[in-house]
Amino acid sequence: MNHRLLLRSSFSLLATALLFTGAARGAVSLGIDELEKTHFGLLLGKRVGLVTNPSGADSKGRSAITVLYRGQSAGYHLVKLFGPEHGIDGQVKAGHEFSNTRDRQTNLPVYALYNTPYGEFRHPTREMFSGLDAVVYDVQDLGNRSYTFISTLGYVMDEAAKDNIEVIVLDRPNPLGGVRIEGPRLSDGVQSFVGLYDIPYVYGLTPGELAQWINAKYLPKPCHLTVLTMKGWTRNMVWEDTGLKWIPTSPNIPTIGAARGYAATGLLGEIGIESGIGGPAPFQAVAGRGWPDSILARRFNALHIPGVRASPYHYYAGSDYDGIYLKIDPRNAGNLTGISLQAIQILEDEIDHFSTFGHTKADQRDMFDKVVGSHSLRRQLMAGRSADAIISSWNPGVSRWAVERLPYLLYGNGTGRPPMNVATDVREAAP
User: Fold this and answer.
1) Residues ≥6 apart with Cβ < 8 Å to 373
2) Which pTM was predicted?
């Protein structure tokens, strides 16, 4: 065979392989990248507020604060900053409140959106948004209902609508991809800041897509919403396909592994079961003091959860912990939300004197219900209902959501069919 032809064929096959494995790696252009490419056209002539933290950065790693502050020469004014849970610098521990301050880089005022004086749900006040024409939202999310950034997004939109202030969402990938949907829906009467919307625990939307749903279904008065879409992102991409560097979204989510693990083990910490926080692999472990790690790993692997493998694990986080480490294949993972329930079932079988809720306080049980989004899950576990039966009971709600979300998809629906039309102002940068 002609060597030149063989070489060309090899390059062609390689290019095709790269295309279909998502490597168009590095090809994802974030909403903030698209804003820069258009020379900040959406912001011209406006007084702008920015909701962000270190995870709000462009593809070169420059923070949204830096990008928007330096871009003001285009003809707009960045006048206020707003910090969601964990603060504008992303360093405040989970659940810890913080106060208004000033940004060290720009000296702009920073308003805390996670502070009790503004109400249990951390709703911004009218005074915070006074004098603004637009509020830009640029925060990386995890794709889980209980991660509070999406509650902040909804409250920002709600407050902005009252005075016709535009909300501009600079879109970002869902690190779990845009196809995965799983977990329970939110039940009536369990609404809280860690569970504000009737969506599955893992909901399969980008921040911009979720903002559209919030605007249409949740707000009493829709806001003037603009979503600046990404380029190069598709629904079947996991984070590793984007070519983007993971920037910690909060102190306990330093890696993309922790971001995935949050869906798998986040529920356990609410009832005192260690999930690796404080160790080298947060949210990627199920552990306790002196637990039989080999037995637990063997029992867990016997479940044959696709793409999830357990290994015996020891780590130190103030005390010695033994249990299992969960290695999760991002492209071939089983039901992540169900892992917590399957782990509980194994612990009940294998750990002497272990009782899932037997040593919990009322406030722990209450928080567990809020994170899960219902009271019934805890009752089912206490009644001894199997993990598989509980996981299967989520299927009708997940199936409904798969249809309900269709009008708000911006990047196809994962089946090759184009998304349905949506009544909102969705902007794409000019090619």
Assistant:
1) 145, 146, 184, 185, 186, 187, 190, 195, 201
2) 0.90
